[in-house]
UniProtKB/TrEMBL annotation:
Domain of life: Eukaryota
Residue spans crossing the bilayer: none
Stored InterPro entries: NA-bd_OB-fold (IPR012340), POT1 (IPR028389)
Coiled-coil intervals: none
A GO BP annotation: telomere capping
GO CC aspect terms: nuclear telomere cap complex
The protein's name in its UniProt record: Uncharacterized protein
Species the sequence originates in: Neocallimastix californiae
GO molecular function annotations of the record: G-rich strand telomeric DNA binding; telomerase inhibitor activity
Amino acid sequence: MKISSSPPSPQISKAINDHSNTSIDDSLLISEGLLFIRPLKVTHIEHFNMPITNIKTILKSKNIPNKYRCRVRVVDYIPRKIVNFTRPYCTVCKKTFEKSMDNSLVCCNRCKSTGAKIKYAFLFSLLVEDNSKCFLPIIIFEIDKSEFLGLPATDLKNPKDFEELKSRLKKLWVFKTVSDNYCVNENKKLTLTHSRTILCGNIFDVCIERYKNTQGIRQKVFDTRII
């Protein structure tokens, strides 16, 4: 999927770079025109009686671990290529590893396990924003099957599985092309048009768990599924 991108703001770049040490190109697609009203019925959450907490409050809180209900929209994601939203997972090492560049046997590069000892896992991060104008990266890491997506984790080189995933993600965001006109002389008789692609996220409710690990403070989705 070929996507042109706008330059990221320093605030968004810091949020996503602090969250993930990755070699993926982190150029960002910026959403515009935020209006946080009643969300579309995009997700089902188990804890609908929980009050909505804004991201600004979460970032200031020293109470970790903790769980929240948030009303957000996606402004970016990593890895950049959706085909890399799944990774092979070794049930022996309990870790994911890089996909092979060819169609050779999937083998753990640590313990050399193959076959039934290797599963696939969804592993990607969404950068979300709410009406407090703050950003929060949240992880989706689910082995074998994703509760959030309602899909089995497979090698996304399979065109059918890849299209099913894109169809699910379209409930969260779509891409639109917009054009900006710029005057390039004082008489305003000469203008240039610049086209860019922006990510337009739908507003949705999500349950987020905040926790600490050896890499720092992280957030992950729980008890939430796309409908």
